[in-house]
Amino acid sequence: MKVKYDKKTDTLIVTFRDAKVEESDEDKNGIILDYDANGKVVSIEILDASKHVKDPNKVELDVA
After folding, report:
1. Which residues are CB-neighbours of 11 under 8 A, at least 6 positions away?
2. What is the CA 42 to chain-centroid distance, rounded?
3. Distance of CA 34 to the CA centre of its chain
4. What residues are paired with 11 via a beta bridge?
5. Residue closest to 27 by CA, chosen among 13, 9, 46
6. Separation of alpha carbons 23 and 7, rounded Å
7. H-only helix segments in 1-64
8. Is the dihedral of CA 56, 6, 10, 18 positive or negative?
9. Tens of pLDDT along 2-29?
10. Helix, strand or coil for residue 3?
11. Residue 44 exposure: Cα atoms within 13 Å on the Cβ side
12. 39 φ/ψ sector (left φ>0, alpha ψ -120 to 50, else beta)
């Protein structure tokens, strides 16, 4: 999994796996889901991330 924050565009992208994106859907305003050919989620893109995420420059990982 990769997490990338672009400060210039205020965009946060969480990529779950490397796969070709076949379809994208903006289910909620500013939240874009990318899908592969089998309909599985590849990544999530959050536009205007600083409005939705407390601190887009910080990533915490919890492993159970």
Report:
1. 5, 45, 46, 47, 49
2. 9
3. 8
4. 6
5. 46
6. 25
7. 49-52
8. negative
9. 999 999 999 999 999 999 999 999 988 9
10. strand
11. 11
12. left
Q: Tell me the three state secondary structure of residue 30.
A: coil
The amino acid at 14: V
Long-range contacts of 57-61 (CB under 8 A, 24+ apart): 57/5, 57/7, 59/3
User: To which residue do tokens 């939705």 refer?
Assistant: 52
Compute the CA torsion angle 9, 15, 18, 22 (nearest 10 deg).
-70
Q: Work out the percent of the chain whose per-residue pLDDT is above 70.
A: 100
Residue 43 Cα to chain centre, angstroms = 5
* pLDDT at res. 31: 95
